[in-house]
Specification:
The complex is a heterodimer of chains A (519) and B (952). Chain A is an all-alpha fold and 519 residues long. Chain A has a domain of 183 residues. Helices cover 72% and strands 2% of the residues of chain A. The two termini of chain A are 34 Å apart. Chain B has a domain of 196 residues. In chain B, the strands form 2 sheets. A two-stranded antiparallel sheet of chain B has the order 1-2. Chain B has a two-stranded antiparallel sheet with strand order 3-4. In chain B, helix 8 runs antiparallel to helix 11 and helix 11 runs parallel beside helix 16. Chain B starts with a helix and ends with a helix. In chain B, 50% of the residues are buried. Classes of the chains: A mainly alpha (519), B mainly alpha (952). At the A-B interface, helix 1, helix 4, helix 5, helix 6 and helix 8 of A face strand 1, helix 7, helix 8, helix 27 and helix 28 of B.
Chain lengths: 519, 952
């Protein structure tokens, strides 16, 4: 019995209450514990990714109850990759939060941070839809706490919108779960995949509506236009390290769509055929376009980045909505890229804020540490806009390439290429104002000397950018791996049989009972 | 030297100038020079192979899935360009060292320059077209940095953005074109693509691919109508203009056209598009150049014109045209770089580049004069200079070209363009160097140090050498041409010589030069006429386009994302309804499998109450207190509903939750006005009502549908019913589900509860440290306060009841596993017991008697639950595996002990802590506001001596 697979959930879930219980007045101890915890998470996640890289499906039956009666946690290539990504992102974000002092500007940062990680990890690992709902709740409430960390009127206002919209989403999730349970009598994803096959072709509305409601829930999390309204102001107003961590949260939605709509309601399932073909891709295209238009329209740097996040989610959703192994592989590659790039950009925006107290794209004197910050911004902007040579470009090529045989190719290509240009113009204008124009503006004589960010802040940002570079340089092995992920997703039999055929407590008894009946 | 090394050297080397910055400017330039020289020498080691007609290839895989690999190849064409890039690079670095002033950051400059150089070498050595695009865009980016090098100058910033936008757009188009091309050919390797001429030209995707690729080439090489960015890129320091914007980067587009010449050229589409664009660009550039006063501007438009010339030559699709193009690339690179550097020298020494303020420099700057004049005459097409030779070839080719079925169109326009080309060269020489010496130069001009005039002088030597002895360049150009043509055509046999006899090209050339002189003679009236003609100003148009795009973007996004939550919610609801409707209409509906159950009186009454309360809520929701009561009714009816459907656990939970929420809400209401103001207009409320009703009906229909149908297979709850005692040791299935079957969910939910409480605390803390604190302190209650806030009756009663409540809580906790109850409900019950004490005697009095901080209680609860789960690890069981046993402690009967109970303790603690911490947070707000902390448990206490004091 190995417990590794549950550790990404349990470790932060133990650490967080411990911090609350024992270290809530000692920021130093909190920091040490938090960083140690995240490093531990990385080690565990790396081990899990390694263990599943050969196609093994790791199963963990909570309470020793077999699926579908109990809850199971399942690790396959995709989920462990996402877990690893979260852990690594978590470390750099945490280092930044500590380096910039953000963690000390309100209460319970580290506890909430750990709970947030727990929620995300759980969402990636669970094999049960209701349990997914629980983890969505955990990550929602923790993210709300982090979002309004250190307070402020504007931030609180944005927080209310964030939490309200997401409560709507949670309510919808309950509707969806109710529908699914009413239709199929199960909540385990693997079991669901088998039971969907039992649905009669004469009676498909029930499962169709259940499936589509669930898709909408995940689309909210993935900030698909027009369900993205919760995102712009909350990400922009959240403390920068928190916004950087949130870069993974939209991916939870994308992950859930990939998981459920390849395994349960896959493209070949007849009763749910044509469910989203008519609108998912167009919505994704609109997301991308709207996101990049928002980049161009932004009056503030943080706002610009939030729209870039919406746009990059549009890219991810375009790839997902094609539902071919090649496109899904491209989507996963892009998800990793987009998470790192968005997080880096949010952190960089905070480097700018340190120097000039606000992020308005107006003429202001040069910031402290401008040279280095400008360089970092340049690199991150290249990544986000998908210019060569970074992974954004490679991801874009992969997505364009995966659309090449599709009937929708013209639309996909036109929107992706045009929106890239719009993004380049938007980022170019912003960077030129913040970093170049500033050089021509004299600092008022009575103004204080600008603050310079700490070394640790820079290290955190550079770390994320280094990961982006690695994601680019090792694109070959990485795409080989995402191909393997896609292959596993589109051939879910191993996953399903591992989940359903592994006996748990009383499973033997049941089998015995059956034997007894046979006699 | 390995091709990898040649490409990588500038990139790796780009780190050095920045590091050497503090070592001084010579060190900085020196190291850059050495890097470039090494790369050049490395390149030259491959010369024998290239001259032998071999193609040097090397490669490693990068993204094999996509076919994007780092494969490099070196043939004649690549070698030619790489030589130009690195050779002129050396001259530029030398020149730049002396050009930049002490104020400029030289390390930064050379870093960008090397980045550019590496990218450029990468383009010309790429065997993979996607890799080529990577380098292609890198040149755009490094060019962006170089144009904007003088960040404080608005022209620099605008020029940089314009260049990036235009070339970026082309780059994106190129991506599309390259992907299509590769898809047709089945590979992205140029060596494969070049073998597939027939397949590509026969493909229906040929035209889209061609247009997209040409968009890339035309934007990069500043072809009409994308030529406008180049003159604005001249805001860059002059070494950059000389290097990027005349000799190398702008030739990338031409390079790509030449590279793909064998597969793309020769079709009518190619011929018409490329030749026309080239011709227009050539003429337009030449005409505009004549009237520019800024030396660099003039040279920029002349560059545009010459790029047009080369493009046109490639467009004709003949082998001779391609050869002429290659020859002109070489010649143009030499004389134009020399001219740019001369312009830079003049700017550097005279502090102006405005021709109108110059003149007479011949005597003051004799060396510069000689260099610039020779280069300009070459550009004008004067014999014995290299420009003459390639221009002759161009005119010869033009003379043979029939465009739009007119044999005169191309020759006439080519001659016209050459005429203006000669004219602006004469103007450049005449107005800058001739005429009287003036006394109003911004600075006293004199010849610069040799470091600045040496590089252009070297170029002029080449200009003259090739001009006098063209056979020197012939073998090399023919090798290059051979690699351009590939297998598509034979290299022409023509000899490079100055005198070809009385051919039409000679007459055209004579017309051009004589015409140029005439234009110079009548320059003043021409200039006046030009100034009087209204012309579209590219920069104004471009900026207007960008500005309107930004305005449009703002108009689209800002009103949509203005934070109006009702609209967000409305859009959410409409989306969900519409998409569900779509799913409904595309599905099939079968007959119900269950009958509708008859409704009894109780059910109907409960339903009516529920509906009435809800409707009342909608009508009365602005009265905050009333709506709270109505919520209470709804909650109560839901609890009753649970009872009716045999779920006593849920009913108990719901009831206790109701009590706690109402109390917390009451505390919150204390800070809010009694009524909610009306904020939205009637129409909007009508709209919202409509959406809400449709949504409600849809939900009803959905629920109705599901309730009348069976699940497709037996529900998993059958297992839970069958095994709750056998496996979980409890007869209360709900509790066994909560703490055992799905204990992991419960674990998650208590964490949610705990986080919520921590959150409320953190929020309160943030509020109390913010501006709200002052508002609270100054707040006057809007209603009279109760005179007796802590009444004796209440105090006595709560104290008496307290142990009873605790006992009930304990009882509910214990019975939980078998009867309705459990940790969650027990926690709520116990919390209510505490809350009553707070209500009776006030927060301060009660909490001063509190031994355990609630944060700790929450933390302990979650920790206990988690550790209980981990406990099962020691028995080699998964997280949260429960076990139970029966023990007997005399004098009790035998009873059951389950590990799940320990888990339930965690749940209990977390619930108590969460409820109490929320309460505490609210009371903190209250205590800041207006409530005095009482000293005693009750305001009026007969047994106290100081009873009257309470009234005071």
């Amino acid at each position: 019995m190995t417990h590794w697979i549950i550790l990404p959930v349990i470790l932060p879930a133990i650490l967080a209450p411990f911090i609350v219980l024992a270290a809530r007045y000692h920021i130093g101890i909190q920091r040490v514990l938090s960083v140690a915890g995240v490093i531990g998470l990385i080690a565990v996640a790396a081990g899990l990714a390694w263990a599943t890289s050969d196609g093994t499906v790791l199963l963990y039956q909570l309470g020793d109850w077999a699926a579908p009666f109990g809850i199971v946690v399942v690790g396959d290539r995709l989920s462990t990759l996402m877990v690893l990504l979260t852990a690594v992102l978590g470390l750099f974000v945490l280092l930044y939060a500590i380096g910039s002092g953000w963690d000390d500007r309100g209460k319970h940062f580290h506890a909430l941070f750990q709970f947030q990680l727990m929620g995300i990890m759980g969402a990636f690992l669970t094999g049960d839809l209701f349990n997914l709902f629980v983890f969505f709740e955990v990550l929602l409430i923790a993210s709300y706490g982090l979002m309004i960390h250190s307070g402020g009127t504007v931030r609180l206002k944005a927080g209310v919108q964030y939490v309200l919209f997401n409560l709507l989403g949670s309510t919808l999730f309950l509707f969806a779960l109710g529908s699914i349970y009413a239709e199929t009598g199960t909540l385990n994803m693997a079991d669901l995949a088998q039971r969907v096959a039992l649905v009669s072709p004469e009676e498909t509305v029930g499962i169709r509506i259940a499936a589509v409601l669930l898709l909408l829930v995940f689309a909210i999390k993935a900030a698909l236009v027009p369900l993205h309204f919760w995102l712009p102001s909350s990400y922009a107003e959240a403390p920068a390290p928190v916004a950087a961590l949130f870069a993974i949260m939209t991916k939870v939605g994308a992950y859930a769509i990939i998981r459920v709509y390849t395994m349960v309601f896959g493209p070949e399932v007849e009763v749910t055929a044509g469910l989203h073909g008519a609108w998912l891709l167009p919505a994704a295209l609109v997301s991308l376009a709207l996101g990049m238009i928002g980049v161009l329209a932004a009056k503030k740097l943080d706002r610009l980045i939030t729209f870039a996040v919406i746009g990059s989610m549009g890219m991810v959703m375009i790839a997902i909505s094609l539902f071919t192994p090649e496109a899904t592989s491209a989507a996963v590659y892009y998800i990793v890229h987009s998470t790192l790039a968005a997080a880096a950009l949010f952190l960089i925006s905070d480097l700018v804020r340190t120097g000039r107290t606000n992020l308005d794209l107006t003429d202001q004197p040069s910031i402290g540490g401008a040279h280095l910050t400008a360089g970092l911004f340049f690199i991150a902007a290249i990544a986000m806009t998908g210019l060569p040579p970074l992974s954004g470009f490679l991801g874009k090529l992969l997505i364009l390439h995966s659309a090449i045989e599709q009937s929708t190719m013209v639309w996909v290509w036109a929107v992706i290429l045009t929106s890239s240009l719009v993004a380049v113009v938007g980022f170019g204008r912003a960077g030129s104002t913040v970093f170049w124009k500033a050089k021509s503006i004299e600092r008022p004589a009575d103004a204080k000397a600008p603050q310079t960010p700490t070394a640790m802040s820079y290290i955190a940002v550079c770390g994320l950018l280094a990961l982006l570079v690695a994601h680019t340089v090792f694109a070959g092995p990485m795409t080989r791996y995402t191909n393997a992920i896609a292959a596993q997703l589109y051939a879910p039999d191993a996953y399903i049989s591992t989940v359903l055929d592994t006996p748990g407590k009383l499973s033997d008894a049941k089998a015995d009972d059956k034997k007894g009946e046979d006699h | 030297m390995s091709l990898f090394l040649i490409v990588a050297l500038p990139f790796v080397g780009s780190l050095l100038p920045g590091l050497m910055n503090s070592a001084g400017r010579n060190a900085c330039a020196g190291v850059t020079f050495m890097i470039t020289l090494t790369a050049l020498v490395g390149l030259l080691t491959n010369l024998p192979a290239v001259l032998a007609g071999e193609v040097v290839q090397t490669g490693v895989t990068w993204l094999p899935d996509l076919g994007l690999n780092v494969t490099l190849m070196l043939d004649g064409l690549g070698f030619f360009f790489a030589c130009l890039i690195l050779g002129i690079g050396l001259l530029i670095i030398t020149y730049g060292r002396f050009y930049l002033s002490r104020k400029d950051n030289m390390g930064e400059f050379f870093t960008y320059l090397l980045l550019f150089q590496g990218a450029m070498v990468g383009i010309v050595l790429s065997d993979n077209i996607l890799l080529l695009i990577v380098f292609w865009e890198l040149t755009s980016l490094s060019s962006f940095l170089l144009i904007g090098y003088w960040k404080h100058l608005p022209e620099g910033r605008q020029g940089a953005r314009m260049a990036l936008t235009v070339t970026g757009m082309g780059g994106l188009a190129l991506i599309g074109g390259a992907l299509i091309l590769g898809n047709i050919a089945g590979s992205y390797d140029l060596s494969v693509i070049l073998q597939n001429r027939e397949a590509i030209q026969a493909s229906p995707m040929y035209l889209p691919a061609l247009i997209l690729i040409l968009l890339g080439c035309f934007t990069k090489s500043a072809q009409f109508p994308f030529h406008f960015w180049l003159p604005h890129a001249m805001a860059a320091p002059t070494p950059v203009s000389a290097y990027l914007h005349s000799a190398t980067m702008v030739k990338a587009g031409i390079f790509l056209m030449a590279r793909l010449w064998p597969v793309l050229s020769g079709t009518p589409e190619w011929f018409v598009i490329v030749t026309t664009a080239g011709l227009i660009t050539m003429v337009l550039g030449a005409v505009i150049a004549l009237f520019k006063h800024d030396l660099k501007s003039l040279l920029a438009f002349s560059t545009v014109s010459h790029l047009g010339l080369i493009t046109m030559l490639l467009g004709t699709g003949t082998a001779f045209g391609a050869m002429a193009a290659m020859f002109h690339i070489l010649n143009h690179a030499t004389f134009k770089a020399a001219l740019f550097m001369s312009a830079g020298i003049i700017d550097h020494e005279a502090h102006t580049r405005d021709i109108r303020r110059l003149g007479g420099l011949r005597k003051l700057m004799p060396v510069t004069f000689v260099i610039a004049t020779l280069a300009a005459l070459s550009m004008a097409g004067i014999p014995f200079l290299n420009g003459f030779l390639s221009k002759e070839m161009m005119l010869e080719e033009a003379e043979r070209t029939v465009l739009f079925s007119s044999p005169y169109l191309v020759p006439a326009l080519a001659t016209f363009g050459s005429l203006f080309s000669a004219a602006y060269c004469f103007r450049l020489i005449g107005h800058t160097f001739f005429g009287p010496v003036r006394d109003d130069y911004p600075a006293t001009p004199h010849d610069p140090p040799v470091g600045m005039w040496g590089p252009p002088a070297l170029l002029v030597v080449i200009v003259v050498a090739i001009g006098v002895a063209p056979f020197l360049a012939e073998p090399f150009i023919k090798t290059v041409t051979a690699s351009v043509l590939g297998d598509a055509a034979e290299v022409p046999k023509n000899y490079f010589k100055i005198w070809h006899g009385f051919v039409p090209a000679l007459f055209m050339s004579i017309i051009a030069v004589v015409g140029g002189l005439i234009v110079m003679a009548i320059y003043k009236p021409l200039q006046a006429a030009w100034d009087a003609t209204p012309r579209p100003e590219a920069k104004t148009i471009f900026e207007a386009v960008i500005a309107s795009a930004v305005a449009l973007a703002k108009a689209l996004t800002h009103p949509l994302h203005n934070g109006a939550f009702t609209r967000y919610a409305a859009i959410f609801a409409i989306t969900v309804i519409a998409i569900s409707y779509h799913a409904w209409t595309t599905g099939t509906v079968g007959a119900p499998t269950r009958a509708v159950q008859p409704a009894g009186v109780v059910e109907i009454a409960g339903w009516a109450l529920l509906v009435t309360a809800t409707l009342g809520m909608v009508v009365l929701h602005r009265h905050r207190l009333l709506s709270l009561i109505l919520i209470g009714i709804v909650g109560l009816m839901v609890s009753v509903g649970f009872v009716v459907f045999s779920a006593p656990d849920l009913a108990m939970t719901q009831l206790t939750v109701e009590v706690v929420t109402i109390i917390l809400l009451l505390l919150a209401l204390n800070f809010l006005p009694n009524r909610t103001p009306v904020e939205s207009p009637v129409l909007m409320r009508m709209r919202d009502a409509g959406i809400a009703i449709v949504g409600g009906l849809a939900t009803f229909a959905l629920a109705f549908h599901y309730m009348l149908r069976d699940t497709v297979a037996p529900s998993i709850s059958e297992f839970h019913i069958a095994n709750s005692y056998k496996g979980g040791g409890g007869t209360n299935m709900v509790n066994v589900i909560l703490v055992d079957f799905r204990g992991f969910d419960t674990y998650g939910e208590i964490i949610v509860l705990g986080i919520a409480a921590l959150l409320i605390f953190a929020l309160t803390e943030a509020l109390l440290n913010g501006p709200v604190r002052a508002r609270l302190l100054n707040r006057l209650p809007d209603q009279p306060r109760a005179g007796d806030m802590h009444p004796m009756m209440m105090v006595v009663m709560t104290r008496v009841i307290m142990p009873l409540v605790m006992l009930v809580g304990f009882y509910i906790f214990l019975r939980g596993h078998n009867e309705p109850g459990g940790g969650f409900i027990a926690g709520l019950v116990v919390s209510i017991g505490f809350v009553m004490q707070y209500m009776a005697s006030g927060f301060a009095w009660t909490s001063s008697r509190l031994r355990y901080p609630y944060h700790g209680v929450i933390g302990a609860g979650v920790l206990v639950a988690g550790l209980t789960g981990i406990g099962s690890w020691f028995f080699a069981k998964p997280f949260l595996t429960s076990d139970f046993t029966y023990v007997r402690i005399p004098p009790f009967n035998e009873f059951e002990l389950a590990t799940a109970a320990l888990f339930d303790v965690g749940v209990f603690l977390a619930v108590v802590g969460a409820v109490m911490l929320s309460l505490e947070s609210f009371s903190r707000l209250a205590r800041r506001a207006h409530v005095e902390d009482p000293e005693h448990p009750m305001d009026i206490n007969p047994s106290r001596d100081d009873a009257p004091k309470a009234e005071a």
